[in-house]
Amino acid sequence: MTTTPPPVWLVRGDDTVLVEDAVTKLVDRLIGDDNRSETLDVFSGTDYELGAVVMAAETPSMFGRRVLVAREAGRFGTNEDVAELLRYLDSPSDQSVIVIAWERPAVAGSRLATTPRKLLSAVKAAGGLLETKAPGGGRARSQWVGERLADLPVRLTPKAKSLVQSTFGEDLGRLVGLGQTLRGVFGEGALVDEADLVPYLGEAGSVPPWDLTDAIDARKSNVAVENLNRMIQGGDRHPLQIMASLTTHYQRIAALSGADVRTERDAADLLGIKGSTFPAKKALTQSRRLGPDGVARAIALLARADVDLRGASGLEPQTVIQVLVARLSRLGR
To answer: Using one digit for the tens of pLDDT, what is the confidence trace for 157-172?
Structure first.
């Protein structure tokens, strides 16, 4: 039994570089050995509408099969925007394949629109949904990163791989550019060690919020402040955003302080956490370690820092949040 290939592919994710890489690989696979100049049409910028892409897909081509790529489609956030595409999905051309790159539009200040539910459902039903988001953490994320490192056009030594992961943090879209750079410098399939790699890594990338809270919980103040700085400088997170993450973390800890919970499942139920109980387990552990006095002190530090971040102290926001993280890391010692 043969499976009908999807007439429309929707490639989406949080990282523009990862979306672009996925689109490139998908288009290469769809075109195969065909002549790209005769087969491929690309729509980009802010001037085109999806109706134009559909019209091109429905127009007979003298060269046969066509692949049409619609870039920066993140601006098409309503059902009205995608109405023509939805109509096309009901009766698609057997000579055309449309690839929608759901990435942020190339306009300053533009926001990435939520994918219209009707489009998402229709493409998913046809088997054309391609998600590019990296797993959030733990073993799944490590495995995902390992697979991407193995796909690089050069071979990295174990120490070089560890260096890439520690430097890039959650900015994994940089892996694509790194692979292209290393191939150009060392050649396809070359073995690259740690010393050779360093000049091409650039600045340390951001880290996810749980790396910050884990370091605080472990009372590793130096690591916590380093992770904080990476979130601000490499991840463009404002101190107020980081404050929100810290507040949520300690609100969970406070909710469990003195509560009659015996297991992490009890803690998860009390906190309203569905699925994995791991976040509840961490909150319960910290609640017991800090005790009521330590939890009260943490909440007081957060409240004071929140006021200072809004201008009460006259200090720079980054300084305020650095002091807060250092003080939270010392609680319970």
So the answer is: 988 888 887 777 766 6
Which domain covers residue 189, as residue numbers? 138-200
Longest distance between any two alpha carbons in the chain, whole Å: 77
Residues 240 and 263 in one domain: yes
| Below-70 pLDDT ranges, the chain | 1-3, 15, 17, 104-113, 133-141, 170-173, 176, 202-206, 234-236, 332-333
Contacts with 165 (C-beta within 8 Å, 6 or more apart), sequence order = 145, 149
**Pairing mode of beta strands 191-192, 155-156:** parallel
Beta bridge partners of 102: 12
Nearest CA to 88 out of 52, 115, 141, 42 is that of: 52
Indicate the number of domains in the chain.
3
Identify whether 312 is part of a domain: yes
Shared domain check, 72 and 22:
yes
**Would you say residue 48 lies in a domain?**
yes
